[in-house]
Amino acid sequence: MAGPVTAVYWIRRAAALAGNEKTGNAVGTILTAFLLPFILIIVCLCGMMDAAADHNRAAVEWCFGDGAIPAAVPEEYAGHITQMRACFAVLDGAVGKLNAELEEGSVPLRANRVKADFFALNFGAPDLTLRQGQAESFAGCYVSEAVHIRTVEVPNPEYDPPEDEEELEDYDVPKTIEVEQEYMVTVPEKDMAVVYARLHALLGAEFPEQWRANAAEIFYLAEYGADAVGGMSDGLIAGLVQDDSPEYIGGAFVSPLAGGWKNRVTSEMGGRYSPITGKWEGHRGLDMAAPKGTEIRAAANGTVLLARYGHASYGNYVVVGHGGGVTTLYAHCSALNVTVGQAVSAGDVVAFVGSTGDSTGDHLHLEVNDNGTLKNPREYLP
């Protein structure tokens, strides 16, 4: 993405090509002074339209909302928002059709999950349109067929009542019996790696780790709103990220660090004086000291919800959902070892200890969130 310095450079080069270098410098200086405000506006708009690299919160809110587009928004940019809203309406229809096919009581496919990826792929594309068939193919990548088992009542093949009425009174073979029956159902696909493999086959597009992280944040902003995303401009407060899978699948927790965690704790959850600001403030989890590069392991089975680099506070961090609304967060990592949508088992290496973000030394910051409420990790760790 071009910045103001790059834009100014190319204005100077254009002027230089029009005449000699001396004239070019003079003309470039005049053009720079005159056009700099417009350059800055263009650069800001480029930043807003580069959804795959660093999505703009306002663009997301305007596209996913139904309110009036502010009059101050440039006409071309407003056009992109209008086109995206029209595509979203078609996607809503496709998702609604899929949800109508789900088994009664099933967790529905989240329309914003589908639309977030579509937004990240297409916002800013010229003359963006989406036909119903295309929308159904796109949304179809987010569901799978699964085998379920139900108990049904069927005629008992051994039921053969006697004709004699007296014998019939003592006949105790049931007329029907209950049997287990397999049947196919459509369910939302939980493994985003599977979804992105299907989208790659459908579209030929690549989905690198940073793109997936941005798409995940777009989803959480659209689904939970700006308050849940928090005040930091470069990412959401992951402690509010919730796993909406109905059943807990995490199993027993294990230590996130090899060799145990209890003797590594340097800061407890709760109130403390911040090592960054020196002020008394709340601490959202446990800090565990370890050398840079130490393996950080998933504390329980689950799926990677976020894998984010460069957060202002958390630095590089991972959020794993364990079902039943339980998530764990691993922050200040030197590097990550997983991608969004990846299934992990307890003990799998998800990242490596570091000191990124608001940190004064190499350590793991671990948080546990249970249905939107922060819990002390000590209550869960072995």
From TrEMBL:
Top-level taxon in the UniProt lineage: Bacteria
All residue ranges annotated as the M23ase beta-sheet core domain in the record: 282-377
Listed transmembrane segments: 26-48
UniProt key word Magnesium: no
InterPro entries the UniProt entry points to: Cell_wall_metabolism_enzyme, Dup_hybrid_motif, M23ase_b-sheet_dom
Pfam family membership, one: Peptidase_M23
Gene3D superfamilies: Glucose Permease (Domain IIA)
Keywords: Membrane, Signal, Transmembrane, Transmembrane helix
Gene Ontology MF term list: metalloendopeptidase activity
Protein name per its UniProtKB record: M23ase beta-sheet core domain-containing protein
Provenance organism: Ruthenibacterium lactatiformans
